Amino acid sequence: MELHQIDCFKIQMKFFRFLAIWPGHHASRSYSYYSKIFIFTFVFVYVFLFSINFYFLPRQLDIFIDDMLFYFTDCSVLSKVLTFLLMRKKIIAIMDVLESEIFQPDDAEGRVIIKKAKKFNKICWKVFASISVSSNFTHALSSLMLHFKEGTKLLLPVCSYSFLSESLRNMLVYPLYFYQTVGIFFHMLYNVNVDTFFLGLLVFIIAQLEILDVKLRKVTDKTKLDDADGASTDKNKESVMKINKCILHFDEVGKFCKLVEEVFSLTIFVQFSMASCIICVCLMRFTMPAPLNYFLFLGIYMTAMILHIFIPCYYGTRISDRSSLLAFSIYNCDWTSRSRQFKSNLRLFVERAKKPLSISGGKMFCLSLPAFTSIMNSAYSFFTLLQQMKD
User: Fold this and answer.
1) Cα separations in angstroms, 358 against 254, 327, 378
2) Nearest CA to 218 among 384, 329, 144?
3) DSSP string across 328-343
């Protein structure tokens, strides 16, 4: 029985289609028009207006920092949208590999591993989506509620659009508020669905390595097939066939890692760079006066950015650790009594497994916990530098 691994990405695919970045294998003309209008309106125009806003901002550091918080996030969203637009064929190839025969478990233990991975991916999306949606509505609607309840001035939720005159901003305050609120909601959906999709791919890589671990430990287990005379099949020949399949499986997992890296390498680099900048800017903003509720928002936002880079790094480390441990897993089998050909193939597998699998960001760093520590150190170093320049 085949396990359709990509089924756990159905919800992401529906949102990708709504967000105009996933037409499927074949795009209709009407969807092509919809995609161009949607992305132009809520991504390119949105980021463009945000960019030119910086030129007209008053030369006041706290105001400048407040706008930069969301601008870095929008730059990350732009990279994710471009990834799906430009790498659609490779993303389809990723889905095809997950459904390929070699990635299908052939025993009960392997099926349990894949089912757990699928269940985790579904739960992960629900958690990310619930937290993101609740925080997004809280931020976007708080100013509007205060405006109608207490009569305070309605502040735009993302940036002030300082290139517009104050009279024009006051006249268009409700349309601008609606545009920014809808835009930031769509950007939140891009972040949630792309991030959980990428994280799901990492989880499936780990699942395949766990299946390989089980196969390697059982590679010499006897599967006796008695013929009419009661003679059993050649166990050495059978073991050689099993270890050859494991070598091919490991090679396919390595190719899958490279394919995922080709698609998401630039996105990972941009996301980690922007998250580092946001952490630095948040630390800088903490040193300036602000209301208590704004400090609470900064703390939550900075924590979210830290988790944004910690979780992929954690799973990147698990991929490297799992792949390197395969060289030890195979020694748990009964290899000493096997044929010379089996031992030769065993050495071949061990040599290949000595180089752990990894996924890099922009060909500059690998997803790993040491990379996370380095990024956090860099963010703090930039903060101390800016603090000294300020003083």
Assistant:
1) 9, 16, 22
2) 329
3) HHGGGS--TTS-HHHH
Q: What is the mean pLDDT of each run of 10 residues along the chain (391 residues)?
A: 80 94 82 94 94 83 78 91 93 92 88 93 92 78 76 82 87 90 92 94 94 87 48 66 89 94 93 88 82 80 87 93 88 80 86 88 87 88 77 58
Using CA atoms of 370, 376, 382, 385 in order, give the dihedral in degrees to the nearest 10: -100
List Cβ neighbours of 208 (8 Å cut-off, separation of 6 or more): 103, 249, 253, 256
Tokens of 31: 């969807």
* Contact in structure between 102 and 252 (CB atoms under 8 Å): yes
Q: Write down how long the chain is.
A: 391
CA distance 349 to 244: 9
Domain residues of the chain, as ranges? 8-219+233-390
First to last CA, the chain: 66
Q: What is the pTM of this model?
A: 0.91
